[in-house]
Fold:
Amino acid sequence: MAALSVLVLGGCQTLRDVTETGAANAASYDALMRLAESTRAQGDLTTASTLYRRAHAASDKRVEPLLGLGAVLTDMGSAREALDSWRQALARDPDNPAALRGYAWALVALDQPQEAARHYAAVLAADPKDVAALNGLGITRAMTGDHPGAQEQFRAALALTPGDTMTLNNLAFSLMLSGATDEAIRILEPLARSVRAGAVERQNLAMAYGLAGRDEDAARMGRLDLDEPAVQRNLVYYRQARSGGAAWPRPVAEHASALPAPAPAVPARAPLPLLPARAAAAQPSTAQSSTAQAPAAGKVRIDLDAYASEALARQEWGSLTRKHGALLAGREPLLVTRARASDGKTLVHLRVAFPSREEAARVCATLRSPKQRCTVLWPADAS
Structure:
């Protein structure tokens, strides 16, 4: 009987330990999630991703850490990793609209528009007024060359959110790509003249002017953000495109990132913007790459992190070149402005170009540390 009492008491102790451990895990999970959200809001995406992973480990049945991690990885340009996070989230909650949109978004970034369209359609089947999904479906239509279909989706989104800058940019860009440059200009001119306009709106308008044959207007608009050599390169491209000597831009996903090309604003909690495709002919320069060396200097980019301002990005570049002078000798930073997917906040990505994937991977392996993120972008994500 005494032995039985010992066993019973031992069992109670074990149950109490389990209960206390569960409570501690719950408290740890809540704290990790709060810290992850706060860190993400401050723009420290590397730390936020680590915290979301730890929260997932603390409570692997919950979908919220995977949603947060997927969004952060998307912001970091890690489309393949983001796709895995969204996939795991959907395994736990197959109808979660945020997970469906995120999964579709990652597919767009990996240049898989048909599959992405299927997931956007699933969101819209449950909620026909989901503006983010309407924009996403429009982008997939444009990526496959169906511009009437793309414009139908963008106009449906505008019927729900009249005047939305991101949607207007996407509509204008699709119109531009389908040859309706005059209509694109009518949409873009008020956006570019707004006090809230940025380089994206201005350089989209510059491209529309150029493709419409209004070179003086294109140059004037281009000079608001670009240096003179970049403006002149753009004018050459516009003339070639008009005469059929250069391919008109075709939309692809943002994972090609630092390539010089105009793009609509990136939506918050919505699909990636349209970007002209990589083509054999010269592509127009944009403010996003006006501080960078010419595209021919390197086809593969590495992303070193995102910062709240250009000044902070340049400060970090200075620190890196002092610490890794031999490794980064002769390289120039590519400062690429993107709106963060989660909340639309503008961040400046610090990127560097290399002539081959192998060299980019080697440099990333050397630079990467617990405090330094380094991600190889295109063509690694496009393979």
